Amino acid sequence: MNRTIRTSIKALIIENENILLIKKKDDEGYYYLFPGGGQEHGETMHEALRRECLEELGCEIMIEDLTFIREYIGKNHEHAEWDQDVHQNEYMFHCHLNKDVPQIEPSNPDDDQIGTEWLPLSEIDRFRVYPQALKQWLKGDIHKAPIYLGDIN
Fold first, then answer.
1. From its phi and psi, is residue 142 left (phi > 0), alpha (psi between -120 and 50) or beta?
2. Which residues does the UniProt record annotate as the domain Nudix hydrolase (predicted)?
């Protein structure tokens, strides 16, 4: 049984009313996650986020303010069957792509990553995006949302 709490750093990249997400697929179909991942020992949060975005998006990012903090305690959510021992704290930063990026091409994508996709914020409810509870804030004024979102999925 894993008793550690994982720290994950994520990027909220919004341009022209679209959000850039990592695309994956499982038995239920396509789903989307925010770019980013686990912080390694000795890395700052910004270093971890830059490394993860370089791997998953293939490009440099500019990091701005911390926008959200969310916890994910797996035993409390719909994927408890396989996530029961997962406890993760995610720190989500508003980011921008380096404007010199000709195209997004992952250099070292996650094993189950099949691509990246810009999704229109106006249609975000049509997609399976995790954490799902974040959709309500993405459709409205992000700046009115609380920073700490709690244990959500």
1. alpha
2. 4-140
91: which residues sit within 8 A by CB, 6+ positions away? 7, 8, 9, 10, 45, 66, 68, 69
pLDDT tens for the chain, 153 residues long, are 668 899 999 999 999 999 999 999 988 999 999 999 999 999 999 999 999 999 999 889 999 999 999 999 988 888 778 788 899 999 999 999 987 655 566 555 566 789 899 999 999 999 999 999 999 888 877 878 899 999 999
Which CATH number is associated with domain 6-151? 3.90.79.10
3-state secondary structure the chain: CCCCCEEEEEEEEEECCEEEEEEEEECCEEEEECCEEECCCCCCHHHHHHHHHHHHHCCCEEEEEEEEEEEEEHHHCCCHHHHCCCEEEEEEEEEEECCCCCCCCCCCCCCCEEEEEEEEHHHHHHCCEECHHHHHHHHCCHHHCCCEEEECC
Residue at token pair 């890395």: 43
